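Quiz preparation item.
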């Protein structure tokens, strides 16, 4: 957060004394995919049943960068929304500045403690209090597979990156795009974090993305991962023969592309488009990542409110934290519910597997926060990875050593 925000915090809190429209909850978010829109309709209807109206404040942009810029401007002006979608360490940053509320009875928070995994609690609590409400957990290291190209060529689906580089030339020679990929930097970086984990291990993943360790970033292992990343250019396409708003999804659905590495919201949208998990669509761990679970967590933070509004905010929390709602919300978004007591009834095979894999990874200390999806580091550090990795991926004149040094130097500058 900029120092300006700290200086203007007092004026913001004065403005919060102005009453909001009764029964109305303005929520800033960036959910615009079909599965996300379906989830929003559920939230809105549940709030309406409790006498509250959801007022949309949507800022498009899958990674949330634009939304956070708008949120900062609104907060500095003393006019924040009632709630905002947030992910990862940015929750702690807003809480440390005094913007976020925790209008819940301590007894209620103890109940949440009993049914939320430690990784979830750590992400949404500040100084022992809940300052955000977790709604769904996404698995980032899914490889979504259309089995038709593999069946046609009698090829095995790769479980390691060595296997991938064996089958990819054969898929390409037969006219298939081995790996679908979107055009945006966060999509490229999602692929990179999966590749890095699949070629190394969880300890190295944490050193690079969580600790941002200079020795790891400049190591021979990192150079090897970067060079493999560039080799993927031969087997991916921003379009892959697909059309429409999300050509990377269309390419997988129509069989033009064989694989797509992305979070499970992509699975939810493919299901809405007619693909059937376990039949026309398979969900497998990204190559080399079996046993690990790279996670993203959607949460809604509540902002400090005018006097007398905390009861309405607490009611909002009751709706979002209801286990039945969390179950249905996660099912619609392709995710899994944060609450361990939420039912998995009606979940497809991908969702049931994700829930089991999350629990297994938690027991073995193999849960890893996604850098590409805001869980592992600050927004500024995330932007460093986005910009450097995207430039490197698309500009072969830059060496892998130069890219590693650039990442390290930019991260060090943020810390100075």
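Solution:
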């Amino acid at each position: 957060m900029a120092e300006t925000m700290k200086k203007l915090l007092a004026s913001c809190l004065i403005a919060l004394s102005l009453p909001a429209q009764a029964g109305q909850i303005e929520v800033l978010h960036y959910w615009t995919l079909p599965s996300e829109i379906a989830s929003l309709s559920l939230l809105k209807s549940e709030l309406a049943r409790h006498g509250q109206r959801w007022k949309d404040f949507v800022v498009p942009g899958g990674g949330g960068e634009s939304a956070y810029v708008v949120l900062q401007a609104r907060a500095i002006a003393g006019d924040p929304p009632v709630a905002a979608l947030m992910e990862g360490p940015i929750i702690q940053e807003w809480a440390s500045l005094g913007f976020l509320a925790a209008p819940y009875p301590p007894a209620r928070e103890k109940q949440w403690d009993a049914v939320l995994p430690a990784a979830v609690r750590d992400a949404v609590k500040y100084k022992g209090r809940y300052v955000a409400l977790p709604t769904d957990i996404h698995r980032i290291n899914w490889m979504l597979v259309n089995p038709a190209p593999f069946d046609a060529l009698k090829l095995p689906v790769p479980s390691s990156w060595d296997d991938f580089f064996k089958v990819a030339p054969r898929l390409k020679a037969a006219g298939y795009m081995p790996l679908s990929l979107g055009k945006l930097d966060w999509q490229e970086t999602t692929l990179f974090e999966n590749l890095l984990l699949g070629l190394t291990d969880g300890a190295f993943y944490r050193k690079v993305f969580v600790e941002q360790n200079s020795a790891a970033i400049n190591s021979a292992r990192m150079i090897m991962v970067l060079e493999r990343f560039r080799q993927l250019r031969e087997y991916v396409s921003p379009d892959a023969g697909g059309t429409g708003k999300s050509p990377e999804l269309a390419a997988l659905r129509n069989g033009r592309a064989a694989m797509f590495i992305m979070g499970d919201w992509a699975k939810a949208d493919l299901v809405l488009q007619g693909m059937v998990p376990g039949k026309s669509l398979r969900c497998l761990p990204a190559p080399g990542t079996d046993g690990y679970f790279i996670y993203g967590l959607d949460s809604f933070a509540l902002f400090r409110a005018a006097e007398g509004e905390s009861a309405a905010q607490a009611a909002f929390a009751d709706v979002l934290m209801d286990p039945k709602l969390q179950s249905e919300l996660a099912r619609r978004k392709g995710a899994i519910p944060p609450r361990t007591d939420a039912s998995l009834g009606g979940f497809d095979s991908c969702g049931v597997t994700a829930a089991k894999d999350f629990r297994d990874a938690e027991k073995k200390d193999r849960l890893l926060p996604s850098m590409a999806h805001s869980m592992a580091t600050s927004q500024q550090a995330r932007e460093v990875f986005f910009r450097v990795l995207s430039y490197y991926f698309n500009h072969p004149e830059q060496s892998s050593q130069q890219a590693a040094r650039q990442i390290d130097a930019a991260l060090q500058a943020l810390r100075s």
